[in-house]
């Protein structure tokens, strides 16, 4: 991946190299809203547009705002309670750092692609995205990186030209989740993993961290056990991983099927915010609260309530509010030419933590203060 300091690119269509830093400085000095669809046009049209931007001076943003504040975008990887918290952080940061923020919540990968293309066309001053499928979105992400300041948040895409990543070490977070399973089932047992998608890097890394922890393996964030086969350790057996593609009804149906298919199932692990509540619904309806432990990720109210009531053993929480805050802070600085906002090494690590019945009330009260 190119260094953030060396990201001066020619167009992918063979356009002669252009000093984008000079052009960007000229645009920022008069708050010009850049039109980036030109990267798809012929070279002559592109160069004409660039020269026009530099010569014409200040103009009204195509997004429809007459404000001269920078406009940045915060793009999620789905629609869930996790992103409600992150959006609150992004909006609070917008007020604090004097920028406009556009929040986009795509339900599917195709929607995310369309939304990013629209944001490029609008000429936003930066995009913070949680890529749904980074391996297959490389062209889109690199196009966005050429057009504006692109950072990733929550889920990374390290092989694209993003400037930095704001999030957590998801492999380590997965091992933390595995430690919760060990605490809930000290004598071992059969477990099943539930997640929205495995195309997202954060989902793959969390899952692998759990598996490696339960099988007492050495740490290796690049290891990947394909789903579909039983993984056996000395005390724990990972029966399978079920994906629901962010379909909440399907998430519950998959949990119900697992309970029926594996009558001796000991633990259900939900890796996305909505998974633990759907697992809980299925376990309650099956009358198996006393025999199946539930371990989660994230801080959905239903999950925290379940922990408080003793129906869910625990969850590993990130800090989506801070994801929103830090992403907008960084984009605001970059839009104004301040690169000191960038984290050292290109990764702003926001640690995870375990929430159990011992600390759930304190954590929940803190969360309510942040988001109300």
What descriptors fit this protein?
globular; 12 helices; 7-stranded mixed sheet; Rossmann fold; disordered N terminus; 372 residues
Short description:
The protein has 372 residues and is of the alpha/beta class. It has helices spanning 20-29, 43-56, 81-96, 109-122, 138-147, 170-184, 201-214, 248-261, 275-286, 301-308, 320-335, 360-371; strands at 71-75, 100-104, 126-129, 150-153, 165-167, 189-195, 231-232, 236-243, 267-270, 293-297, 314-317, 347-349, 353-356. The longest helix has 16 residues, at 81-96.
Walk me through this protein's architecture.
It is a single chain. The chain has 372 residues and is α/β, with parallel strands linked by helices. The protein has two domains: 4-168 and 320-341, Response regulator (Rossmann fold, 3-Layer(aba) Sandwich), CATH 3.40.50.2300; 170-317 and 355-371, Rossmann fold (3-Layer(aba) Sandwich). 42% of the residues lie in helices and 16% in strands. It contains twelve helices and 13 strands. It has helices at 20-29, 43-56, 81-96, 109-122, 138-147, 170-184, 201-214, 248-261, 275-286, 301-308, 320-335, 360-371; strands spanning 71-75, 100-104, 126-129, 150-153, 165-167, 189-195, 231-232, 236-243, 267-270, 293-297, 314-317, 347-349, 353-356. The strands form two sheets. Strands 7-8-6-9-10-11-13 form a seven-stranded mixed β-sheet, with helices on both faces. It has a six-stranded parallel β-sheet with strand order 2-1-3-4-5-12, with helices on both faces. Helix 9 (275-286) links the parallel strand 9 and strand 10 (293-297). The two termini are 40 Å apart. Residues 1-66 have low confidence and may be disordered.
């Amino acid at each position: 991946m190119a260094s953030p300091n060396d990201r001066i690119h020619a167009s992918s269509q063979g356009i002669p190299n252009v000093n984008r830093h000079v052009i960007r400085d000229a645009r920022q000095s008069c708050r010009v809203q850049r039109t980036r669809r030109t990267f798809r046009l012929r070279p002559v049209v592109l160069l004409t547009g660039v020269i026009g931007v530099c010569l014409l001076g200040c103009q009204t943003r195509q997004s429809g705002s007459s404000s001269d504040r920078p406009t940045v975008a915060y793009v999620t990887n789905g629609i869930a309670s996790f992103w409600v918290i992150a959006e609150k952080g992004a909006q609070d940061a917008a007020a604090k750092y004097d920028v406009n923020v556009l929040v986009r919540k795509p339900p599917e990968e195709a929607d995310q692609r369309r939304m990013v293309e629209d944001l490029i066309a609008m000429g936003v001053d930066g995009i913070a995205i949680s890529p749904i499928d980074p391996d297959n979105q490389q062209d889109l992400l690199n196009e966005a990186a050429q057009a504006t300041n692109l950072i990733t948040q929550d889920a990374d895409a390290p092989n694209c030209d993003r400037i930095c990543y704001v999030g957590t070490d998801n492999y380590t977070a997965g091992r933390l989740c595995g430690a919760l399973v060990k605490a809930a089932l000290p004598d071992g047992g059969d477990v099943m993993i539930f997640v929205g998608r495995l195309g997202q890097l954060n989902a793959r890394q969390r899952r692998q961290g759990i598996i490696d922890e339960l099988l007492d393996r050495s740490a290796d964030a690049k290891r990947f056990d394909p789903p579909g086969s039983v993984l056996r350790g000395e005390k724990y057996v990972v029966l399978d991983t079920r994906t629901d593609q962010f379909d909440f009804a399907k998430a519950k149906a998959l949990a119900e099927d697992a309970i029926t298919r594996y009558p001796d199932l000991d633990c259900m692990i939900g890796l996305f915010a909505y998974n633990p509540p759907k697992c809980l619904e299925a376990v309650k309806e099956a009358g198996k609260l006393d025999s199946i432990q539930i371990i989660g990720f994230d801080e959905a109210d239903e999950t925290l309530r379940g922990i408080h009531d003793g129906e869910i053993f625990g969850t590993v929480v990130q800090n989506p509010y801070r994801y929103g805050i830090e992403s907008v802070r960084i984009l605001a600085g970059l839009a104004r030419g301040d690169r000191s906002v960038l984290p050292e090494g290109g990764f702003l690590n926001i640690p995870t933590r375990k929430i159990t019945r011992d600390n759930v009330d304190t954590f929940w009260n803190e969360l309510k203060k942040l988001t109300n």
